[in-house]
Amino acid sequence: MQKLLIFTDIHFVKEGRDIIGLDPVARFSQGLAHALATHPEASHVIITGDLAHYGSSKEYARLRTALAGCPIPVAMTIGNHDIRAKFRTAFPEIPVDENGFVQTVIDAHGHRLILLDTADEEAEIKHSGLLCEARLNWLEARLAEAPDTPTILFMHHPPITTGFEAMDRIGLTNRTEVAQRLRAYPQVKQIIAGHVHRTMSGAAGGIPVALFKSPCHQMPMALDGDDEHLSVDEPGAYGLILLHDDQIIVHTEDFTLHPASPASDM
User: Does domain 2-254 have CATH number 3.40.50.150?
Assistant: First the structure.
């Protein structure tokens, strides 16, 4: 069994700023420390976008500092709050595809991990996402290279409707097309996403989809709400993926809760 640590929607801000009274940098650092201490044998940290709240150079600089001591490899892609050019300047070592999208492949533990860039900086609907033809063609080429290798896709915008009307409005605008095209690739066993700041699951074209919460602020259970910016101070979380030879197991860990203790039968 191998382990992957997954973070999403970390929303770094400049020093002295917060989000609903929470410090995203402190919360991420707490979550990363918890994950590494609890699962020191994990092979990778994967962060699925919304790295910086405003996409500024100072925010990315703070993220680089926060990751500097991480003892295992870190892979990242971007989300709707990020600015691609500034991210690439801040993290020139992070791979991109031939078109400059923050997309890469990691072959590990008999699995293929593919990170996708769903950021749409020219979107008519602000904060919505897109996997354009160039990005889908790149994905299909990577899938064609390893048709017999179990594959996990990582992206920011989920390729499903979530029931949150406001978030679905700013979701992946071509999610139906993406799900249809993925049907041709049975080696895709799992999709991991974020964006909604809730833990949930679903399926896209028959492929299981798991969404994780943010380490910082969460979306309240307001399915018919009209404001995608609603946030609540609920426990911060990260995801844990267990890779077995014959299955993929997905967990989530609320790391800001009190430590576990034995239940009393008295």
Answer: no
